[in-house]
């Protein structure tokens, strides 16, 4: 409630308040300050209730602390382990899609099982071992690595 005010700083503020307002006016200043804080708190509670009432029943458990981006991210990302990311990740088979695109570029037909069916013969695996044929059907596969350009890297 006092943010980073320690006990010595609090004593210093009390002494300063006594010196500024005097012992006669200090109780009245404290009462006025407490009344002001109470009214501000009532006003904020009323505004929060009005917002909840206007949002409707689907937002009845809406938490205003979620409006802070850090709290929102912590609540929805860090505390919720069941995000369905595994299902999303498993839904994408990038190797198969890459093979299909490569086969379409090379002009081969794609069989219903997802593998390419070449009309001129069998497809040789690529040197990398990924199973995707990147050379044209009439050419022999490259056995030597591509040239290395030190300036390009």
Automatic annotation (TrEMBL):
InterPro entries reported for this sequence: TatA/B/E, TatB
Family according to the record: Belongs to the TatB family.
One CC-aspect GO term: TAT protein transport complex
Function: Part of the twin-arginine translocation (Tat) system that transports large folded proteins containing a characteristic twin-arginine motif in their signal peptide across membranes. Together with TatC, TatB is part of a receptor directly interacting with Tat signal peptides. TatB may form an oligomeric binding site that transiently accommodates folded Tat precursor proteins before their translocation.
Biased composition (Low complexity): 111-127
Sorted UniProt keywords: Cell membrane, Membrane, Protein transport, Translocation, Transmembrane, Transmembrane helix, Transport
Database matches in NCBIfam families: PRK01371.1-1, PRK01371.1-4
Region (Disordered): 105-153
Pfam families on file: TatA_B_E
GO molecular function list: protein transmembrane transporter activity
Stated name of the protein: Sec-independent protein translocase protein TatB
Topological relation to the membrane, as annotated: Single-pass membrane protein
Quaternary structure and interacting proteins, as annotated: The Tat system comprises two distinct complexes: a TatABC complex, containing multiple copies of TatA, TatB and TatC subunits, and a separate TatA complex, containing only TatA subunits. Substrates initially bind to the TatABC complex, which probably triggers association of the separate TatA complex to form the active translocon.
Species: Streptomyces radiopugnans
Subcellular location: Cell membrane; Membrane
């Amino acid at each position: 409630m006092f943010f980073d005010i320690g006990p010595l700083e609090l004593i210093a503020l009390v002494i300063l308040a006594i010196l500024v307002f005097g012992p006669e006016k200090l109780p009245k200043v404290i009462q006025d300050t407490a009344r002001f804080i109470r009214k501000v708190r009532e006003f904020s509670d009323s505004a929060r209730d009005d917002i909840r009432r206007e949002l409707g029943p689907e937002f009845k458990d809406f938490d205003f602390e979620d409006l802070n981006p850090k709290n929102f991210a912590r609540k929805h990302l860090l505390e919720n382990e069941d995000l369905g990311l595994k299902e999303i990740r498993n839904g994408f088979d990038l190797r198969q899609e890459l093979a299909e695109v490569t086969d379409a570029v090379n002009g081969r037909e794609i069989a219903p099982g997802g593998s390419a069916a070449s009309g001129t013969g069998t497809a040789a695996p690529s040197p990398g071992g990924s199973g995707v044929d990147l050379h044209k059907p009439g050419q022999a596969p490259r056995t030597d690595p591509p040239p290395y350009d030190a300036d390009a890297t």
